[in-house]
Amino acid sequence: MSTLLLSRTDVIRHMEALTLLSEMRDAFRTDAEHRSVEPQRARGALHEHGSALVVFPGTLQGIPAYTVKVHAKFPGRSPAIQGVLQLHDLETGALLAVMDSGHLTALRTGVVGALAADVLARQDASRVALIGAGAQASMQLKSLRLVRSLNHVRVYDVDVARAVDFATRMYKALDLPVRPAMSVEEAVEDADIVITATPSREPFLYPGMIRGGTHITALGADEPGKAELAAGLLRQSTFFCDHRALNVAMGAPAGVGLGDEVIHAELGEVLAGTKKGRTDAGQVTLFGAVGLPFQDLVAAWHVYQVARTDDAVQRVDFGA
After folding, report:
1. 219, 224, 226, 230 alpha-carbon torsion, rounded to 10°
2. Using CB atoms within 10 A of its CB, is residue 87 exposed (0-12), middle (13-18) or buried (19+)?
3. How far apart are CA 264 and CA 96, in angstroms?
4. Of 245, 304, 312, 319, which is closest to residue 96 (Cα–Cα)?
5. Helix pair angle (135-144, 160-174), 10° resolution
6. 151 vs 137: CA distance, rounded Å
7. pLDDT tens across 212-271, in order?
8. How far apart are CA 268 and CA 25, in angstroms?
9. Smallest Cα–Cα separation from 70: which of 296, 306, 304, 318?
């Protein structure tokens, strides 16, 4: 059989964010109701500048395929994540596609962030703070516009020049007021939605910095040793996550020595109606994401369904 070989350009060309958002909403609900295979993340440090990461298996009831993703994570490089995703037939194991995973991971993470904000942020939320001015920040901002009408953005980065450049680029791309902030405190002081996407190993968000009614999506703590949110903030807010066990092992709670006692619910449980989300306008809600393989599967299946009918896509028979 032939296997599709999908470059970054192919992935971009065959992915539509608004459709993926709808598919991801259904997928979180399905995962909460029918999870049968526990997700795994295997990380191996190569040296102080990089590591190898495998995220598997991506499975979801209703999709007859599974995924295995292999990433090189080199935070000092641009892009920081490089790798491939393998899409296999669930029944036979046949290799359906091999695709660049960089844009796929970035967009599915952006969509998950937007989904969390749609479920947990106030309906009138319009002011955004971005902590970290990397590639994921731009994807989060673009995805947020799918679910909320935004009118003001502040961005902070430890590299001031990067924050200034980000603000300029996003203003031109989105026609949205985006301004650099000189501190985390300045960035979040009037925010309705705060997005953290940093490699930080020390907390920088504390309870007294956050206004009542704010929603926070924290993306940086996705492996042991990383932390963005202080323990007090987790304890005093209502914390939601994508997966309990992985968050306890390597997510926001783990980074500050906390366990599942601070986890109110998984996002999928809220979407399935078995747990409550935001219950009042003054509540501070947090969503901590480590990134799950079923999310990779949803995005990869989305791309594959369109690309398989595209005669311009390259194909190879690995068994030849």
Report:
1. 90
2. buried
3. 38
4. 304
5. 30
6. 17
7. 999 999 999 998 999 999 999 999 999 999 999 999 999 999 999 999 999 999 999 999
8. 8
9. 296
